[in-house]
Amino acid sequence: MSVLSVSVSGGHDFSKTPASNITLVQNLGVKGDAHFGTHVQHRSRLHIKPPPQNLRQVHLMPYEILSAVGVQPGQLGENVTTKGVDLLTLGKGTKLRFVDRNSSTANGPVVTVTGLRNPCPQIDKFRNGLQEHFVVRDANRAIVDRKAGIMGVVEAGGDIRPGMTIVVEPPAVFERLECSVFCLMRDVGLDIDTWFLPMSVGHPRGPRIKSLLTFQSM
């Protein structure tokens, strides 16, 4: 279980640029990346007041899934491309510890897994028809699972580079990874901006809408 590639982008571009290493900063994310910060940095959610906690500081993606559809590391926007780790079956709260082969596991950067990445429509803008490869549907065509990688927050900072070993530390109690409320809203055809605009302009429906949202943004 290892790091195949690391990528970063300071702009809100869909793809990220592979790098020799990336630096994780505790509670903030990847230094120099557009999603760096304690609060959500996604452009479609910046108008939400108060700003949601940033639970998508680091995006990790299995290379095995990318290679099956001919996508290169970083092209889907992930920060860390892994090899030999079944990321999608991990439980919420799993700790991923990144270590050099010759160093102690106690000192490496640590990412705590928060949930699934939503395979957004931008994937089809990158390559037409690709988005469908990252969702699982039931007999009624409803989305029942997602395969676009996982999100996490930085528990311990440090540098990550290709070739580092990934040590998986499961939580005491397994909880299946889920997508955020935003992708659940998309699944049932709700427009996110229409719902959240009242929250940002003091609309009287704001408190009611907020009370319905029990998930943090990812």
TrEMBL record:
SUPFAM superfamilies from the UniProt entry: PK beta-barrel domain-like
MOSC domain sequence ranges: 17-169
Gene Ontology MF terms: catalytic activity; molybdenum ion binding; pyridoxal phosphate binding
InterPro entries attached to this UniProt entry: MoCF_Sase_C (IPR005302), MOSC_domain (IPR052716), Pyrv_Knase-like_insert_dom_sf (IPR011037)
Protein name, entry field: MOSC
Species this chain originates from: Arthroderma otae (strain ATCC MYA-4605 / CBS 113480)
